């Protein structure tokens, strides 16, 4: 038997979800990335992330200094895990950025787009 431990209700539809210790980050159709506290079951911070829906959210596993979001606005963004402020915008795709990932050693960020391109970026 499986038990549900926590229920967090949101007004917007979530597109992606990533866990960061006792927090989760969600990307949604309202163009935001929200940081949720699982213990308190509340939204801690709303990042006005993009000009279109957030298609993916990834957390840097090695060091945990940033998260990356991708969007239908043709970009991806790197966000500070401490201040939730933007560190860098990864622009250069001619179509929706559908997914993003971070290399295990954090040396590269990869984005893939509807423009049929795959790009590797340095996070700094």
What can you see in these coordinates?
This protein has strands at residues 14-20, 23-28, 33-37, 42-47, 54-59, 66-71, 75-80, 86-91, 97-102, 109-113, 118-121. The strands form three sheets. It has a four-stranded antiparallel sheet, with no helix packed on it. A four-stranded antiparallel sheet has the order 5-6-7-8, with no helix packed on it. It has one domain (14-121): 7 Propeller (Methylamine Dehydrogenase, Chain H). The protein is mainly beta. The protein contains no helices and eleven strands. The chain is 0% helix and 51% strand. A hairpin with a 6-residue loop joins strand 5 and strand 6 (66-71). Mean pLDDT is 84; it is low at 1-7. GO terms for molecular function: U4 snRNA binding; U6 snRNA binding. WD repeats lie at residues 24-46, 47-89, 90-124. One of its GO terms (biological process) is mRNA splicing, via spliceosome.
Write the layout of secondary structure elements.
Elements: E1 14-20, E2 23-28, E3 33-37, E4 42-47, E5 54-59, E6 66-71, E7 75-80, E8 86-91, E9 97-102, E10 109-113, E11 118-121
Antiparallel strand pairs: 1-2, 2-3, 3-4, 5-6, 6-7, 7-8, 9-10, 10-11
């Amino acid at each position: 038997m499986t038990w549900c431990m926590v229920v967090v209700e949101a007004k917007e539809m979530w597109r992606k979800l990533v866990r960061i210790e006792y927090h989760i980050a969600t990307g949604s159709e309202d163009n935001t990335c929200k940081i949720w506290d699982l213990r308190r079951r509340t939204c801690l911070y709303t990042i006005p992330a993009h000009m279109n829906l957030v298609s993916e959210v990834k957390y840097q596993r090695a060091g945990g200094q940033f998260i990356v979001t991708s969007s239908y606005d043709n970009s991806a963004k790197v966000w500070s895990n401490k201040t939730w402020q933007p560190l860098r915008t990864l622009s250069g795709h001619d179509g929706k950025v559908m997914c993003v990932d971070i290399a295990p050693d954090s040396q590269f960020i990869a984005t893939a787009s509807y423009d049929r391109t795959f790009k590797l970026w340095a996070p700094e």
